[in-house]
Design goal:
The protein has 3 helices and 4 strands. The chain is of the alpha+beta class and about 100 residues long. It has a 4-stranded antiparallel β-sheet with strand order 2-3-1-4. Helix 1 packs antiparallel against helix 3. The mean pLDDT is about 95.
Length: about 100
């Protein structure tokens, strides 16, 4: 599995609109992308301007397809001016963890 984590800091004047756009983006990703297995959206309870995403894809190609999708492109265009900081990290899941 290919894992993506993203941390956003959002301009406080756009938090409400960002939350709505992010909710739609998560739903679209899970509905329209069969290789997107998880898309968790978390907000900091102490700072409403901070958002954390945990996304799980079948592989890197599936994530690349996500980035190229129409729904992601629309989302990115909509929210880019609202974001004051964005950190993206890419991970691979270790499948052979002993229980």
């Amino acid at each position: 599995m290919f894992i993506v984590t993203v941390e956003f800091e959002v301009d406080p004047s756009h938090v409400f609109a960002f939350r709505n756009a992010m909710k739609k983006q998560a739903s679209d990703s899970l509905t329209l992308e069969p290789s997107c297995h998880q898309f968790d959206v978390c907000f900091d309870p102490e700072n409403e301007s901070r958002c954390f995403l945990y996304e799980r894809y079948s592989d890197r190609s599936a994530f690349n397809a996500h980035l190229a999708s129409d729904h992601f492109q629309r989302f990115d265009q909509t929210v880019s001016a609202w974001i004051t900081k964005k950190t993206v990290q890419l991970w691979t899941m270790h499948e052979d963890v002993a229980e």
